Amino acid sequence: MKDLPVPRQPARKKPFYRDISFQVFVGIVLGVAVGHWWPDAGKASQPLGDAFIRLIQMVVGPIIFCSVVSGIANAGDMKKVGRVAIKALIYFEVITSFALLIGLVTINLLQPGAGMNIDVSSLDAGAADSYISQAKHFESTSIFLLNLIPKTMVSGFASGDILQILFVSVLFGFGLAAAGPRAKPMLTVLESFSQGVYWIIGLAMKVSPIAAYGAIAFTVSKFGVGSLVALGKLVGEFYLTCLLFFVLVLWPVARMAGFSLLKLMRYIRSELLLVIGTSSSESVFPQLLTKLEQLGCQRSVVGLVLPGGYAFNHDGTCLYFAAVSVFLAQATNTALGWEHQLALLLVLLITSKGGAGVAGSAIAVLAATLGATNTIPVSSIALVLGVHRLLSSAFVFVNITGNAVATVVVARWEKALDTNRLRMELDTGYIEPETALATH
């Protein structure tokens, strides 16, 4: 297998109404309208969004497995694999630390929760119980590390645990690399298998506008447009924080790496619009993998960095942790000094790794950590449940963009990036293939 996908053939640009990003945008607008004016119909639309997410979740595990195994086995040089992994992990930790710092400074300056004077005893103490039980395996470092190892080779695929899938994929990839030429037949099988999976993804993407409509219609019908007003300060503060992160961190990083952040976001705009509707990063993983290879990043690098980013690089989620945890302290008049804030967020930075692949993991990790640290009342999480979907759409948007930037940057560091192709693709913009089968 070649490191780079076959260069695309010149294609006639489709009419705007056939562009998937335009269709997803229309779906979101229709979802807001239906959810607001016909709430019963909006609530009934929930299965449309859930079905699409499940369809994508069904193939994310196999795609990660094929990508990581192919990336390691085809890299040949195990030193290169280790070098890429170390560079990626260092990049992830540095950028997420900047995210925590920006989130902390912004929430403390704007103080959206100050003056709310919420009486903790008046809150529903059981509102966060489901999230705490969901995140039981985040409670200690030893349990987290033990949970990396699945009970069987297929356990991670069955549960959708990205960290376990990564663990199995890395070991299997090293095993095939050690086998040398004898592993060629298995790599051929994996390539053929991945082509079949990508056909399913191409088919699923045709209905993604309907999925975006269903997810947004349900959210608006359940919480109402007024939910933006009720906790508008927190929502506004968080959106501003996300914007600052783009301007102060991602834009300079992209510029130093020699590409335009705005052009990259335009290139993956359909994926960014889709995560706004679904609030699920998994829903765009396969398409993002293909597009990053199309941009000129070597498959061996993309296959390692992007799945690793999904597990370890949570820029937007760290912004969310900073905003919500300090907001809850402000709203409940809980004394939380800078030293306590830093300690709490450092714990969250570590425990967030265990939430990869778990739906709703951000609020689950937050609930479990607040309960374990015994600082901010866990029941106060009930305050943000109504707007969590609005917040999650934003932080998943940041996560996806951050991981795309990380992949291109690490590929450039590793001299595994075709810069001419990158420039050409970003200038031209992504053109969808005529068939449902994605080029890979």
UniProtKB/TrEMBL annotation:
Q: How does it sit in the membrane?
A: Multi-pass membrane protein
TM stretches of this protein: 20-39, 51-76, 88-110, 154-176, 197-218, 238-262, 342-370, 390-413
- Can you name this protein? C4-dicarboxylate transporter DctA
Q: What is its main location?
A: membrane
UniProt keyword list: Membrane, Symport, Transmembrane, Transmembrane helix, Transport
A UniProt-annotated Pfam family: SDF
InterPro entries from the xrefs? Answer: Na-dicarboxylate_symporter (IPR001991), Na-dicarboxylate_symporter_CS (IPR018107), Na:dicarbo_symporter_sf (IPR036458)
Top-level taxonomic group: Bacteria
Its localization reads: Membrane
Recorded hits in PANTHER family, A to Z, give: AEROBIC C4-DICARBOXYLATE TRANSPORT PROTEIN (PTHR42865:SF1), PROTON/GLUTAMATE-ASPARTATE SYMPORTER (PTHR42865)
Organism in which the protein naturally occurs: Roseateles agri
